[in-house]
Amino acid sequence: MSTSSGWQRKLITIFRSEKRLGASTVIKTFRDKSIEEMKATIITESMCDPEKLTGKPRTKDLFAHLANIKHQFIGQPELCFYQAALIVLLRREYKPKETFAEFETLWATQTEFLLKHLSLRWMISACDTFVDYTDNTARAAILMNATTLVNTLRVYETKRFLQLGSESRDVMTPFIDDNVEALYRGDMRLYDGLTYFRAGFDDTLKNMRNRYETFYDTDALATTMLLSVFNRLQTPIDNNSNAFTTMRDLHKSERSIWWEE
């Protein structure tokens, strides 16, 4: 049993190391440029590496992942891509203390510029990053409001899309089969960089719940109340479904379950 556990830990370590390969090169590329230079540089298609593009939302290769993201920033200032790159490195656990310090300094000094140019998707990614890494619990709690607001919007927009084409807008309106299949196939654009929930596999609500739970040490009573409300929304009451229970009914992945049985 201990041998198996040891191998599991070793495989996890190898996997994480592979995901961070080349991270120091990425950081050096940005550090060789000034903030003003990155603000003035607009990303063009010629600046993207077509050989690295995979079209997949997630890939283990760091350079391929960043190439996919950079392609999404065509027409935007390079500083916005730099912010996204820092988030990617943090999620891959590359020198979290130093990388978050850079991220935090960037936001402290370039707040107005970032809020003006970032899509809603990347603004929320920034909020999530602060929640995950800041020592300022008040800031984390405030920014969880932004995350909750947008995730709730996405859930309800997804349910509306599932019923799009039906004349009725009653909560019990049946779903359009083609729309359900479209959400199962992959990410679909909503607006401002956001996507509909990917039915069956989306881990957004699980991640949001995990972030809620980090507030137990700050205020156990408030966190217990918050999670109680969150749990209540995941369960049909008096046979009345809602957008959250809809996402639960369509879910397939055991790894990203966000509700309590």
Outline the biggest β-sheet: none
| Spatial separation of the terminal alpha carbons | 29 Å
Rg, alpha carbons: 20 Å
Number of helical segments with 4 or more residues: 13
Count the beta strands. 0
User: Which class of secondary structure composition applies to the elements?
Assistant: mainly alpha
Low-confidence stretches: 10-15
| Helix and strand element order | HHHHHHHHHHHHH
| Shape label | globular
Helical coverage, percent range? 55-70%
| Range of strand content | under 5%
* Average of per-residue pLDDT values: 87
Describe this structure in words.
- The protein is mostly helical and about 260 residues long.
- About 60% of the residues lie in helices and about 0% in strands.
- It contains 13 helices and no strands.
- Helix 5 runs antiparallel to helix 6 (about 95-110), helix 8 crosses helix 9 and helix 9 (about 135-160) packs across helix 13 (about 245-250).
- The radius of gyration is 20 Å and the shape is globular.
- The two termini are about 30 Å apart.
Q: What's this, in brief?
A:
The chain is mostly helical. Helices cover 62% and strands 0% of the residues.
Keywords:
261 residues; mainly alpha; globular; 13 helices
Give me the secondary-structure topology.
Elements: H1 2-20, H2 23-31, H3 35-40, H4 62-72, H5 78-91, H6 96-109, H7 111-117, H8 120-133, H9 137-162, H10 177-185, H11 204-213, H12 220-233, H13 243-250
Helix pairs in contact: 2-5, 5-6, 5-8, 8-9, 9-11, 9-13
